Write a sequence for this structure.
């Protein structure tokens, strides 16, 4: 009996798994790209491009459906066990998270349309700075999650979980800062509601990245960390 | 190279070879069958004439002064029926005067005729005082003549029956005093120097007793030995040695077993010669290795899953063997044993050595009375000079063949029955 | 991954039970000079199904056969260590192997009903051990055994017909009925479904699930899915060693030992 270290006895199984893996990575890239593009439209006040971002979300949805089909097929035909089983279950959830992250990116693109097509007085770029900053942060989180998924790197997943703690602090300080803008100029109130909704979308985007990191911990260790305290998980990862 | 055309080319050659192979097998089979058929046809042809026997009618005047007074069983027994027959024949052929011719005339009737007449008088003494026509066996030469097995056209000197005798017989035939009837004697009497009086019943009974003894000895001992060797014996050098020796014994020429019987059973233990008991023992020794080997094969063929099943429900080893293994192996054991018994039934050589080749007229009454067996009887008759023994030899061979075939048929039937029980 | 044959090793997972039916401690099995089982310790609890899995030749069947001393029939086989049933050492001289096998029944890989009638198949064991005093007692045992084996409805009208004439799955259930007719405490099953089609297999699996209410069951199987479906605990054997044992739920979702992981995900064979 030979122990082959890596590689399934069915080569097709490995091929199917790695294909699924690449679909997930594509989805991750696309989700980050969507958010980046949405930010670009906001910066350039480009309503047409914003429409394009919204249309592009369909690609993410299609990938989501494709990934789900592949997962169903693998379960039906290969009956994966142990690590394979955990991975396939986790991938199902990661895919759902990525698809929702894409929805959040679409909401940012929606802001562009609201601000620059229907609104008579567009907001100053200055008050949109917070959105850009938060976007960069959560995009970094998601990128890190995907890298952690690619390499099954628990340390990176831990970083993402850490970042999600930072994200909470950032959100609070952002809200505080925005309140000072409102106090300066009450006419901005209308925009602020939209901006807060945008920030809320970004928070969710970050939340999805954090979920994905949790799924990676599950793949790696077999423990479901979704509802455990963050400090707990981090302690466990380090151990 | 074009694979398809290459394959197609070779296929034709392959079919040719296959056809040739099949044809060769067919030809061999046909040749074999032809020889067998030839053998059978000759035997049957020769044998059928032995089923009929020529009888001659003689009128015997049973005058009371031929018998001692008073007439009772003893006096009938002591009466000379030979004389009466001769007298009757002289009366029938008054022209025969010369002593030499008279002798020839008397020889028309079988030597056994006087005893046959005596026996029928003992049975019905009221015939005494009358003249009665008795049908008695003709001599074997006359029998041959009547069956056309002696050619009348060859020169008298080369013929066993003289011209005179032929003319007398023709006269008797013209008078309607010669008949051929079914030959019951052949199936009911023992051996005799006179072919017309000889039969196979004595040899048959000898065979039955012998094979019975063989079966009673070889079967239980053989099966028990096989069970022990196959199921219980540890695997070591000693049992290996036994196994090798059993296999070798099966290949030992049968006459050696006869010598063994002679040396040990007869010379050392002082058992009588020529009796079925000793014959049976010798044949049992001879068949034992075959019985053991075939029984072991049958036991080994019982699937291990059945053994496991029995052990799994808590049967002991002996229970497993008695309840499951032996019943399943029984058809195989039976087949092997009966085939080896059939071989023993046809065996001659070892029995010659222990004296079962003796000339025995009496029908054996038990395994301890001297007798011979069918194949030895065939050997004895085949060795006899009389022409009439030729047909008897064939008839005895036919009987032996029928017995063997029916034993094999019985085996097949028995096997099917045992197997169909489940 | 590397695994040396003769190195010391430690079984991963909890092999023991608070309420054991059978306990095995440091069991070694040798075929002549070749060691087939290395220092295996585990418990089989009451009313549980313990599945033993592992690649071919890993010794799981050999180990199973130690539990009712079926290995006794192999001359060159030697067992050391301690196996107890109800705290009685089954290899001690006082333990009668016939009695042991009455308490530890066995079902084999190939359905092996006796070439006798259905009735005789089931009645054989009870009759052998004198479990039935009267004919009606015996009838009752046969009926209840067939019922528990889920075969009664199918065969009640042909009890006198040959057991070998049943379908493969029915034959295997007949063998199970035969095993439970002598009221064992433990039933050993050596790949009971490997010769059956999927439907017959699921019938047997359902039956195993019901039987565990009354018996402890130890099943050797080549099908990981089957082990996952029917067992509460799973033991993984590799080259004669008990590598990992634990709750089936854990073994099939997150096994600890890399060999277990490799085997159940199909990454070596």
């Amino acid at each position: 009996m030979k122990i082959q270290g890596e590689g399934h006895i069915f080569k097709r199984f490995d091929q199917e798994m790695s294909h699924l893996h690449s679909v997930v990575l594509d989805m991750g890239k696309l989700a980050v790209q969507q958010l980046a593009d949405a930010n670009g439209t906001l910066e350039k006040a480009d309503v047409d491009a914003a429409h394009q971002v919204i249309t592009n979300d369909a690609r993410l949805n299609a990938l989501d459906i494709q990934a789900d089909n592949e997962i169903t097929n693998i379960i039906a035909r290969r009956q994966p066990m142990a690590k394979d089983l955990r991975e396939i279950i986790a991938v199902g959830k990661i895919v759902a998270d990525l698809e929702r992250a894409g929805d959040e990116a679409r909401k940012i693109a929606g802001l562009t349309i609201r601000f620059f097509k229907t609104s008579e007085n567009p907001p100053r770029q200055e008050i949109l700075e917070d959105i850009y900053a938060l976007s960069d942060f959560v995009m970094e989180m998601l990128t890190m999650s995907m890298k952690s998924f690619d390499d099954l790197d628990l340390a990176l997943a831990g970083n993402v979980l850490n970042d999600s703690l930072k994200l909470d602090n950032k959100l609070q300080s952002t809200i505080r800062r925005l309140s000072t803008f409102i106090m300066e100029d009450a006419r901005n109130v209308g925009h602020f509601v939209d901006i807060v909704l945008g920030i809320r979308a970004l928070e969710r985007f970050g939340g999805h990245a954090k979920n994905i990191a949790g799924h990676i911990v599950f793949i790696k260790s077999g423990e479901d960390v979704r509802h455990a305290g963050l400090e707990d998980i981090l302690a466990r990862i380090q151990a | 190279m074009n694979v398809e055309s290459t394959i197609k080319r070779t296929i034709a050659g392959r079919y040719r070879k296959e056809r040739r192979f099949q044809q060769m097998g067919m030809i061999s089979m046909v040749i074999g069958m032809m020889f067998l058929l030839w053998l059978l046809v000759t035997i049957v042809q020769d044998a059928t004439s032995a089923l009929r026997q020529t009888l001659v009618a003689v009128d015997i005047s049973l005058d009371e002064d031929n018998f001692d007074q008073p007439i009772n069983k003893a006096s009938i027994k002591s009466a000379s029926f030979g004389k009466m027959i001769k007298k009757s024949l002289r009366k029938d052929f008054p022209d025969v005067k010369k002593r030499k011719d008279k002798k020839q005339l008397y020889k028309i009737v079988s030597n056994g005729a006087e005893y046959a007449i005596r026996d029928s008088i003992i049975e019905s003494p009221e015939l005494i005082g009358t003249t009665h026509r008795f049908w008695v066996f003709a001599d074997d030469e006359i029998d041959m003549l009547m069956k056309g097995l002696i050619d009348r056209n060859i020169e008298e000197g080369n013929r066993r029956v003289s011209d005179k005798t032929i003319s007398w017989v023709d006269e008797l035939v013209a008078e309607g005093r010669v008949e051929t009837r079914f030959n019951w004697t052949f199936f009911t009497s023992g051996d005799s120097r006179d072919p017309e009086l000889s039969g196979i019943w004595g040899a048959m009974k000898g065979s039955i007793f012998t094979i019975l003894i063989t079966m009673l000895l070889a079967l239980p001992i053989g099966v028990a030995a096989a069970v022990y060797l196959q199921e219980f014996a540890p695997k070591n050098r000693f049992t290996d040695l036994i196994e090798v020796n059993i296999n070798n014994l099966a290949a030992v020429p049968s006459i050696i077993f006869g010598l063994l019987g002679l040396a040990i059973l007869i010379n050392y233990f002082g058992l009588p010669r020529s009796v079925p008991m000793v014959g049976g023992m010798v044949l049992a020794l001879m068949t034992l290795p075959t019985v053991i080997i075939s029984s072991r094969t049958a036991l080994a063929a019982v699937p291990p899953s059945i053994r496991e099943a029995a052990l799994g429900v808590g049967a002991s080893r002996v229970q497993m063997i008695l309840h499951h293994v032996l019943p399943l192996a029984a058809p195989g054991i039976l087949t092997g044993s009966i085939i080896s018994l059939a071989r023993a039934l046809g065996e001659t050589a070892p029995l010659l050595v222990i004296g079962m080749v003796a000339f025995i007229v009496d029908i054996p009454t038990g395994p301890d009375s001297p007798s011979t067996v069918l194949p030895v009887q065939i050997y004895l008759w085949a060795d006899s000079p009389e022409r009439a023994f030729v047909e008897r030899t064939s008839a005895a061979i036919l009987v032996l063949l029928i017995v063997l075939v029916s034993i094999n048929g019985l085996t097949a039937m028995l096997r099917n029955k045992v197997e169909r029980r489940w | 991954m590397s695994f040396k044959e003769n190195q010391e090793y430690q079984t991963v997972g909890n092999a023991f039970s608070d309420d054991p039916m059978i306990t095995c401690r440091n069991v070694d099995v040798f075929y002549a000079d070749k060691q087939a089982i290395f220092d295996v310790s585990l418990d089989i609890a009451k009313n549980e199904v313990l599945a033993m899995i592992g690649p071919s030749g890993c010794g799981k069947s050999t180990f199973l056969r130690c539990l009712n001393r079926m290995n006794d029939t192999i001359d060159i086989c030697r067992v050391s260590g301690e196996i107890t049933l109800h705290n009685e050492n089954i290899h001690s001289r006082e333990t009668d192997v016939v009695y042991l096998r009455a308490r530890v029944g066995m079902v084999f890989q190939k359905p092996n009903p006796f070439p006798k009638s259905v009735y005789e198949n089931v009645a054989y064991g009870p009759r052998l051990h004198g479990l039935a005093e009267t004919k009606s007692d015996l009838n009752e045992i046969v009926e209840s055994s067939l019922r528990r084996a889920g075969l009664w409805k199918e065969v009640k009208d042909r009890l006198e017909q040959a057991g070998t004439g049943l379908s493969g799955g029915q034959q295997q259930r007949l063998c199970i009925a035969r095993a439970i007719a002598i009221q064992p405490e433990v039933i050993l099953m050596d790949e009971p479904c490997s010769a059956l089609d999927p439907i017959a297999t699921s019938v047997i699996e359902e039956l195993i699930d019901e039987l565990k209410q009354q018996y402890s069951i130890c099943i050797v199987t080549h099908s990981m899915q089957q082990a996952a479906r029917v067992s509460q605990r799973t033991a993984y054997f590799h080259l004669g060693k008990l590598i990992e044992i634990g709750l089936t739920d854990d073994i099939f979702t997150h096994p600890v030992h890399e060999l277990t992981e490799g085997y159940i995900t199909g990454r070596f064979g």
